[in-house]
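Quick one, T. Sequence first:
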Amino acid sequence: MAENKFQMEQETVPSMKYDEFDTANDRFKRSFGAWLWGSMLAAVGLHFLVFPLFPTFLVDDVSFQMDEVELIELPPRVEIPPPPEQIQRPATPVVTSVELDEDITIAPTTFEFHQTDDLPPPPSDDAVDLSSQPVFTPFTQAPEVTNRAQLARVLEREYPSLLRDAGIGGRVLMHFFITEDGVVENYLVAESSGHTALDEAAKRVASSFQFSPAYNRDERVPVWVQIPITFESTRR
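Structure tokens:
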């Protein structure tokens, strides 16, 4: 009886030691195979369930067709003729053989052959109005503007506000008739800006111009001059 009891104690001791030192890591290692195969079976089943729900993709037709290359017949080659030969100039001047009479004079003008009874009257200075329309008047010293600072203020005042706010500008070319004293007696629009409002504003500015007189040598003369009046908006 004592031997049997000792054998039973020896058989139970190892099992008691095994259960006592069994850790969670050991239990996980023993169950690793079951978890591995179970997760693989679950993944395969999930894929088979997702495939029927996945949208169907269609392939578009991306083929293209190239146009046939058409051969164009070139025109026949044109042969350019050679340039003409350069004319050789004479090395020495050619002296003419025509003899001229050294006693060449202009026949005297007399009133015997030119009757003065039917001649028109000479033009009168009073009959010619230079200020009516632009005409050329010879001068050696051109007139100059003497009130540029005042004109800048007049130009800003007369600029139409609607066109300035809209950023619309223009250039009006004006004709000025200036008397011997430098006074603007008449002005005309020589070239329009394309806007009637700017042309009318340029006329109002033109009435404020002041000039120095023009001279033809030492004599003051009335002249017509051209001066552009530009309206430029600073708004962009």
